[in-house]
Design goal:
Elements (H helix, E strand, L loop, with lengths): L1 H16 L7 H16 L2 E3 L4 E3 L2 H12 L1 H18 L5 H24 L12 H26 L4 H32 L1 H34 L9 H18 L3 E8 L2 H8 L1 H18 L5 E6 L2 E7 L3 H17 L15 E7 L7 H17 L5 E3 L5 H5 L3 H11 L2 H4 L1 H20 L4 H13 L9 H4 L7 H8 L1 H9 L9 H6 L20 H15 L11 H10 L7 H13 L5 H5 L9
Parallel strand pairs: 6-7
Antiparallel strand pairs: 1-2, 3-5, 3-6, 4-5
Length: about 600
């Protein structure tokens, strides 16, 4: 309706204002040619790339020297030629643009005459007429275009006009000055004046295009990391702030992933910095290849990378990052076999923006916390930010956790299976303690005990612990002693004595057939009974040298079948709910079918 109203008003105003005064057609075609050239050679203005066209300066100069009929005739011809030349633009846009020019030109002319202006003369006495009429031209343009954007966007008219004034007032002042200069040139020598004016405008356009291109190249270089050719830290932080504002207004999801290459320092130390740079470049190329066109991938610093994923919720972002992780694991790069996981891997944290997040800095910090949490699970992991778990459970007992981390790190080199297993059990313990609403003291004991429960395996020879196939009787007895050895290791530190039952008794069974003491039922502490369920579930679903891996579905079936014999039945039901409710459970693990193999 608005487009139609403006278009009809412009056409009617054109018909009513045009008096068919005889024209000098050679002069008219000269002006038409000049306007078409200047419409093609617009002046690009950095940094936003707004363009400044000199056609308004010519229209105003013609209006102030030759009057309304000449101006409207030239406007009609240039609009028709431009519409034919720009066929890809829909017809109603050409009509709307033509009508706006008609309204501005006619109203400017009338205001010029009403304020005492005289055609063809510029003096100090009538300069006010030029300024008044030009103000009308400028304000009509802002209002007519502003109303169009008001109807197609959500901002208020005041904000739109304020923004347009801020961006266009300087270009309109330039147009005013140039139109007055052209009036003076036309009065002296009309054809030479048009030629010189057009030539200067075209040269300015070419110069500004080169300047703008150079500006863009410099800006791009400032935003790009020279090694990986991804965006750099500064660009990413600025973009994140903009995307947060956009997501806030539109109510659309926005997720952030922070990625840190595992054990990159070790790779760098072994192969040298040049090879380390090649690895970073390779990883950057993999990220760029797998990312969607709407994603933004950046090198955040060192071996840290960031992915901004507009349109994806937290779970969708988790799946994408996890898919990237698996792809990276399966893509060989020279020298990665020396790393603990035997392949290139990373740890990542994922978070989705919500209204409780204050700014981009807070969002990055929370993604970083989730990434750190992924590392504590044995690396080569992706973790979602959990507002309830991460700040309290992961970081509250940092001093004790650091102490356990130092002792447990030895597993990374001796028994990577046990190391990863302990990390996963630790994660399950966090979720399980939350499910059962444990008090803070019990939660601390369970989580820390889960992390260190198998530390006694440090005393078992490597060839036994990594043996494929059935263990001998002597070897099995040695493995069973790991709970006693673990107790001896932990008991050397008085601050860890609360963990002794979990380390020593986690292989006891509810029916009394476990080891080392054969405790049964509620003789076994509740936290130990909880750890037994977690430990067994992860052992069943983890690849091990001496047993075939079960799917999550198969392991849940096994838990149910052993409920009341091996496990506390109440705790089994609660833990199965934890597994089924976890947003990060891999559906492939739930649905993967393998022959069920019961391990003695």
């Amino acid at each position: 309706m608005y487009l139609s109203a403006v278009s009809v008003a412009g056409i009617l105003l054109y018909i009513s204002s045009y008096s068919m005064t005889p024209l000098t057609w050679s002069l008219a075609f000269t002006f038409i040619t000049a306007i078409l050239l200047l419409n093609h050679y617009t002046i690009l203005l950095p940094p936003s790339g707004n363009s400044l066209s000199m056609d308004s300066a010519i229209y105003l100069a013609i209006l102030f020297v030759f009057g309304l009929d000449m101006t409207l005739t030239i406007l009609l011809f240039t609009s028709l030629i431009y519409a034919i030349y720009q066929k890809q633009v829909v017809w109603w846009k050409h009509l709307f643009n033509f009508s706006i020019y008609v309204i501005m030109i006619v109203c400017t002319y009338q205001s010029f005459l009403l304020t005492g202006g005289k055609l063809g003369s510029i003096t100090v006495l009538n300069i006010s007429s030029y300024l008044a009429s030009f103000s009308i031209y400028f304000l009509l343009n802002v209002i007519l275009i502003g109303l169009f954007f008001l109807l197609t966007q959500t901002e208020s008219l005041f904000m739109l006009i304020k923004g347009m004034l801020k961006e266009t007032i300087s270009s309109y002042l330039i147009t005013l000055v140039l139109s007055l200069i052209l009036v003076l040139m036309i009065k002296q020598q009309v054809y030479l004046g048009i030629f010189l004016f057009s030539s200067v405008a075209i040269l300015l356009s070419i110069s500004f295009r080169q300047y703008f291109q150079l500006y863009q190249e410099v800006s791009e270089k400032a935003d790009i990391d020279h090694l990986t050719e991804l965006f750099n830290h500064g660009y990413f932080k600025n973009l994140l702030e903009k995307e947060i504002n956009k997501a806030k207004k539109a109510g659309e999801p926005l997720s952030l992933g922070l990625i840190d290459l595992d054990d990159f320092k070790k790779y760098n130390d072994l192969h040298g910095h040049l090879q380390g740079d090649r690895l970073l470049k390779h990883f950057g190329a993999e990220m760029k290849r797998m990312a969607k066109s709407s994603f933004t991938v950046a090198r955040y610093g060192g071996e840290e990378f960031a992915v901004l994923m507009p349109g994806l919720n937290q779970l969708e972002a988790y799946r994408f990052i996890n898919q990237l992780r698996k792809q990276v694991n399966d893509t060989y790069f020279e020298g990665v076999e020396v790393l603990p996981h035997g392949c290139l891997s990373f740890s990542a944290g994922v978070i989705e923006y919500n209204l409780e997040i204050y700014n981009s800095t807070e969002m990055i910090e929370k993604a970083d916390q989730a990434m750190y949490f992924a590392k504590t699970k044995g690396k080569n992991n992706v973790s979602l930010f959990d507002t309830e778990n991460l700040p309290v459970d992961t970081f509250q007992y940092q001093r004790e956790m650091d102490l356990l981390e130092q002792q447990l790190r030895i597993f990374l080199y001796k028994d990577v299976y046990t190391y990863r297993h302990s990390r996963r059990v630790y994660e399950y313990a966090i979720q399980f303690s939350k499910k059962l609403n444990l008090n803070m003291a019990d939660r601390k004991t369970l989580i820390m005990g889960a992390l260190i429960h198998d530390i006694g395996k440090l005393e078992i020879p490597r060839d036994v612990i990594n043996k494929r196939g059935k263990l001998t009787k002597e070897e099995w007895e040695m493995v069973q002693k790991h709970v006693i050895w673990g107790r001896e290791i932990v008991s050397t530190d008085r601050e860890l004595h609360d963990l002794l039952p979990l380390v020593e008794l986690h292989h006891e069974r509810f029916d009394g057939k476990g080891y080392p003491y054969g405790f049964s039922g509620y003789e076994i502490p509740r936290l130990v009974r909880m750890l037994t369920v977690i430990d067994s579930f992860d052992a069943m679903t983890t690849e091990r040298p001496y047993q075939e891996t079960k799917s999550f579905t198969e392991a849940i079936t096994e838990l149910k079948s052993c409920s009341g014999s091996q496990f506390d039945p109440q705790l089994v039901d609660a833990f199965i709910e934890v597994i089924q409710e976890s947003p990060t459970v891999d559906l492939e693990k739930m649905n993967h079918n393998k022959p069920v193999q019961v391990t003695p």
